[in-house]
Design a protein that fits this description.
With 380 residues, the chain is α/β, with parallel strands linked by helices. Helices cover 46% and strands 13% of the residues. Belongs to the threonine aldolase family.
């Protein structure tokens, strides 16, 4: 009950803020329905029937994704968890190996309750435990055989980190030397292009298959897509059916995804460009306010998301965030919450620089960070 009350209090405080840097949260039902109605007017004919088991708007979305990624075909999935299982299970049959090499911080290992092993019967191995994707020599010298190398771009739980283009191409080449296929977990691939300095299709072309999300970065309702050769997509669709992913109708998710590709995808480079100044201003503002050891990771963000670390208890930081929103009507963290992922008293929050953040100058961020430090003093 106390947790629900705190959540409601935080939501009300953030709703009352004139400006929110990160973590405003999803729109309410009324706003979400208005967006969906607008998308329907833009992407569907007035009397067009709703999709039926993946035709219509869903097929249109699949064509658009294949075009953007430069893949032969694409398939819509209700979740990324299902999309990746279908891809990796299909590759296991083709390679004759049920072993997937990935990072221990990869999404399937941390956030999916062991689904690759429990549901799909796959085994995972870790070429590295360093907080980055595996280096070429780690792939080349790894002691166990594997059929598929899965690379998460960016590696979210390590801090939304990306390799350089040369590092990425070398790692992929090392996997090819071992006759392994390469799959990209590209839930957030949409915002990687500025870091690599390459278009999406050139990035995706390095891999044999690519998964992308529609609700991460693109503000879609839900859903994901798998891009790959047509033969693999055909098999992945069979696994989608077996896994229970062939839904009767999915037009709301498809409409919101099409709108995200049109509206949000072109804006992502501006968000990525603004992330560096925001990260710098946060460090400076907290230091000016007297907070000890403010850290941003990566120091220069690779995408429009990054980690912020402060050496204070999470409860104290979250209370200060709430107090700032209620009293100043300005919020750095919105509904986002600090947590202590390692040492007690060392807290981290994930920051997202999106449309709301573009309204903030570096001076705005520094001032708000210094003000947050004052709100923290009584709680810390």
């Amino acid at each position: 009950m106390a947790q629900d009350e705190d959540k409601a209090r935080r939501a009300a405080a953030v709703a009352g803020c004139g400006r929110v840097l990160s973590g405003r949260g999803r729109p309410g039902i009324r706003e979400a329905m208005a967006r969906l109605t607008a998308a329907a007017a833009d992407f569907a004919e007035p009397e067009q029937p709703a999709d039926f088991y993946g035709d219509g708007l869903v097929e249109e979305l699949e064509r658009r994704v294949a075009e953007l990624l430069g893949t032969e075909d694409a398939a819509f999935f209700p979740t990324g968890t299902m999309a990746q299982q279908a891809a990796l299970r299909s590759w296991a049959g083709r390679t004759g190996s049920d072993v997937v090499a990935l990072h221990p911080l990869a999404h399937p290992e941390v956030h999916e309750r062991g689904a690759l092993r429990v549901v799909s019967g796959l085994r995972t191995v870790y070429p590295t435990r360093a907080a980055r994707i595996p280096a070429a020599e780690e792939i080349r010298d790894f002691e166990e055989p594997f059929g598929t190398l899965m690379l998460e771009l960016p590696l979210r739980d390590a801090g939304f980190v990306l390799p350089s283009w040369d590092e990425l191409t070398a790692t992929v080449a090392a996997a090819r030397e071992r006759d392994a296929v390469v799959h990209f977990d590209g839930a957030r691939l949409w915002e990687c292009a500025p870091h690599f300095g390459r278009p999406l299709a050139e990035i995706a072309a390095l891999a044999d298959s690519v998964y992308v999300s529609f609700y991460k970065s693109l503000e879609g309702i839900s859903g994901a897509a798998l891009g790959a050769p047509a033969e693999l997509i055909a098999e992945a669709k069979a696994w989608r059916h077996r896994y229970g992913g062939l839904l009767f109708q999915q037009f709301p998710a498809a409409l919101s995804a099409l709108a995200g590709l049109r509206d949000e995808l072109p804006r992502l480079p501006s968000y990525v460009a603004h992330a560096g100044p925001v990260a710098r201003a946060l460090r400076e503002g907290f230091a000016d306010g007297g907070l000890a050891w403010p850290r941003v990771h990566p120091a220069e963000p690779h995408t429009h998301q990054f980690q912020l670390w402060l050496p204070y208890p999470a409860d104290a930081l979250n209370e200060a965030s709430l107090r700032q929103a209620e009293q100043d009507r300005v919020s750095l963290f919105g509904r986002g919450l600090f947590r202590e992922p390692g040492l007690p008293g060392l807290s981290m929050i994930e920051m997202t620089v999106a449309a709301d953040a573009l309204e903030w100058t570096e001076r705005d961020v520094r001032d708000a960070a210094a003000s947050f430090a004052r709100h923290l003093a009584p709680a810390a």
